[in-house]
């Protein structure tokens, strides 16, 4: 089903302890998640009951499938399933705004930006901001700052 | 790919940049050192080397960042490398605090430098924002006090985004270390009242968490939360917060959750929120995903808080919307909601039972799992079997471990079927070969670990299971030396608690393992040890093993791997000895009698106890070695052992299905025949004409019903049937009405199974026919197809083409009992519309005719004789009897034996000239019986000289032969009066025939564990098996499944669905009864009834 992109750090955002998961576990989580999610048909529900890997039965995988990409969120029972589904939608729409017609290459090459956007939406594992315009404003402000610094410190980095 | 890596790396500084805004000056050396680190890592060849390198790196970094001499520039460089290490998944949390410090310093730096000439204010804002974001993502507990004041300051910040992030950071702290932020609780309150919605929303996270832990401490905030929700729902928020024109949906969800927690078990608090919940339900009507999210939360809240019926009703409707939605996500949530509310409101499950049944077979395992969860919650004594059948093991490990627990706890008290079935499951496996092997290997390993523990006692049956599995599959665990397994087994042999039976299992296992290993010291030792054992059995085994070990090729052929399921062809009939037998007989030898027959004869002479285990077929079919042993007529092969003997020509008539004498199943008295004379042939013409009449009456309703039937698909009916078994005992009203519908479905099914059964029995008779012919060569004294032998005649009638000489009369006489064979209540309707012949059935089964003397008697007593309503009139029912009476009121009762319950029809008759008011009928709680709906009924008014009636459905809760259901009826005439009465109910009121095929009987028989066996003497009047069985059928409402030879099998069920199976066998004037049922008290109760009716008749 084509190229698939799953970002482990997204799941790390939800890791409450803030302790980094070892790379092996990260990779395993991604593999298993991909295995689980990609096997699912189009006409089944977007929720997956969690196994031990994602922290027991209280946790759930909620995913959305966009063309070749799966966006997977791992949440615990304190989140509304449908709410998260729409949060993914907001996230993707925001990505689309920030990158102007987002494609998977954007996500691969600008993983940092993706993280920043997500960090604006979800902070410390809680949904903070769901207003797209607000998020875009924040991100723009950050970008501006970054650019100005780049200019000041004569960074060798080329513009995108 | 390398290109991608390259570009990712080039993007890296950008990632690091914003988090460490001051990293700029150190960039060049940083990148170069980082570059060298990355280069050296990519140059490595193994994961191990990488680990080593990173550990070194981290150690040096740690030293560097902690050193006070480290310059800012160097520090930044270290951070970059640390972040890279962490990205690779290595623990480097020690660096976080330095990072935070750095970020803060950065701010100061910026402020101090100040000359950079861009808007300091805005930059600072973004940077603070980012610092806070970092804080809430990674933060070690011990550093909280250091930064807490900084963050608290930010709560007063003029920009709302900062305040919001500060709140969020505090929330994070609360999660990590709740007691450290305790002193700032009122600051949270301030945040809740913040003029910015975003800040307020952020504070809700904290409140949700705190209320979860201690809801009583925040009750005073309820009104505030309600207020906020009201404003949100009412669209008072700025339009910015709308999502798909829904105002702040996530905020709503959060608030609803909080309200749910606050209102739980608290009527007063709940009172405050009813309005706003109603409003939310009403507003959330736009058909968008997010509104469903709100609806779902609403429903959950409504069911969590103190109930209000109006809201519950609306919420139930909402759940219906979810469950019935074609959108799979909504369906899932609907099921989830059902799971939560089902215990409070079982009727809701009844409403959606068809959907639930459909979801059981849903292709999505998640949906399936949720459905099982629902079933699990509604499990009760009545449906537990059906529900458990729907469950499955999540994985191999779970299965084996659960079984281990069952074996260790259950021990030798377990029914032998359980270990046997378990082993069979292991041996037969599933479709997937790989999975089978995994399961077996897992089992082997698990047992090896168990046996490793010295001095642990295991029940014999568990030991046997372990031993068998080790013997059969130990070679699957390739890394385990067979020698180890053999040593284990060997040491077991020496244990004192191991019985000789288990020792035999061990020897068998050792032999199997030996066939797969070349040579083993342990085996040699074992042979040596046991060749001189005093136990002859062990000696025998040892010798066998010794000889087999000497011929490995033979051994391998004899014990192929994983062949436990392969059929071993054994000529059990010993046909190769036929010549020898014939020779012997011709020399005047007495014909062979099997051992048990000899014993029986001896025993019946001595009138002693019967020690012969006549149950499981294996023994008898082997021991019989009779000719019939070759083809056992049923799956169970209720060893028709006697038939193969020439000495038993007299018995031969029973060789075929015995159809005589069962003709008269349902007499005119209806369900409980009393003193009706034997329904002989003379009655038949009369019955036939009467049947026609009745048929005419019955056909009409059934025709319209059958139209209805055809509109359902077969599958649907199956589901309905399943539904009725699953949702049994849940609610009352809906359940009953659905069962009404069910009847239609079951009829169809039973019809089908009946046809099958006919085929089966036909096959069986075929077989027996051929059996008869095989008598020829061996026992030439017996004439083949002896004309005067009744049994044979019947056999031939089955196949009219073979015996054209027989008369039509005979054929008819045969067909009639055939159609009568299944007199189940369910069949009445279907029978009546199927063939003209089966109309006879109705005439015999039919309806209680109220012309009997009982009615006349009661007619004398009162002027107004209550009579059953039309729809009940057609069901089998008892006479109408008086329960109690006074000068004003009389109470009558009629028992109606419905298929699914016992219906008590109660008639209250007003004998006075004026109306009676407030007539209240109440049944008291009885230990043994359960009244399905409310135990009370109120007639608001009974007019003068008229009769009112009510119906109560009753099940038997606890088994007893006879019990009393007390009650009272009170009424208002001149004064308040009360009459007491009691209804006597017997076990038989709750017994219904159970239709099944012989095959199903066999399966069910093996799965049941409660045994009761008893031999009772048969009276001369009913010396034949069929006579005895028909007595049982008539009096006890048992269903005759099959009769083979001198054995018969019968089935019945205790309402609602507890089966009881009965196996009968006759020998020399005795009737051996063997009951099996999942319920231990049921066989006893039935046995008592059997004895009673056999004595009476």
TrEMBL record, chain A:
Protein name as annotated: AP complex subunit sigma
The record's keywords, sorted A to Z, are: Cytoplasmic vesicle, Golgi apparatus, Membrane, Protein transport, Transport
GO biological process per UniProt? Golgi to vacuole transport; intracellular protein transport
What role does this protein play?
Part of the AP-3 complex, an adaptor-related complex which is not clathrin-associated. The complex is associated with the Golgi region as well as more peripheral structures. It facilitates the budding of vesicles from the Golgi membrane and may be directly involved in trafficking to lysosomes. In concert with the BLOC-1 complex, AP-3 is required to target cargos into vesicles assembled at cell bodies for delivery into neurites and nerve terminals.
Location, primary (coarse class): membrane
Q: Where in the cell is it found?
A: Cytoplasmic vesicle membrane; Golgi apparatus
Pfam families the record matches? Clat_adaptor_s
Mention any one GO cellular component term assigned to this protein in its UniProt record: cytoplasmic vesicle membrane
Q: Which organism is it from?
A: Anser cygnoides (Swan goose)
Q: Which InterPro entries match?
A: AP_complex_ssu, AP_mu_sigma_su, APS3, Clathrin_sm-chain_CS, Longin-like_dom_sf
The residues covered by the AP complex mu/sigma subunit domain are 20-145
Q: Which family does it belong to?
A: Belongs to the adaptor complexes small subunit family.
Q: How does it sit in the membrane?
A: Peripheral membrane protein
UniProtKB/TrEMBL annotation, chain B:
Where is the protein situated, by its record's location annotation? Answer: Endomembrane system
Q: How is the protein disposed in the membrane? A: Peripheral membrane protein
**Biased composition regions of type Polar residues, renumbered to the chain:** 633-648, 756-773
- Sequence ranges of Low complexity compositional bias: 702-712
**What single Pfam family name could you report for this chain, choosing any that match?**
Adaptin_N
Q: Which GO terms describe its biological process?
A: intracellular protein transport; vesicle-mediated transport
Q: Where is this region: Disordered?
A: 625-658, 696-717, 751-783
Domain named AP-4 complex subunit epsilon-1 C-terminal is located at 992-1095
Quote the biased-composition stretches of kind Basic and acidic residues, using this chain's numbering.
649-658
Q: Does the keyword NADP apply?
A: no
Q: Which GO terms describe its cellular component?
A: AP-4 adaptor complex; endomembrane system
Q: Which domain of life is it from?
A: Eukaryota
Q: Which UniProt keywords apply?
A: Golgi apparatus, Membrane, Protein transport, Transport
Q: What is its main location?
A: membrane
Q: Respond yes or no to whether keyword Transport is given for this record.
A: yes
Could you tell me what this protein does?
Answer: Subunit of novel type of clathrin- or non-clathrin-associated protein coat involved in targeting proteins from the trans-Golgi network (TGN) to the endosomal-lysosomal system.
Q: Which family does it belong to?
A: Belongs to the adaptor complexes large subunit family.
Subunit-structure text: Adaptor protein complex 4 (AP-4) is a heterotetramer composed of two large adaptins, a medium adaptin and a small adaptin.
Q: What is this protein called?
A: AP-4 complex subunit epsilon
What is the scientific name of the source organism? Answer: Anser cygnoides (Swan goose)
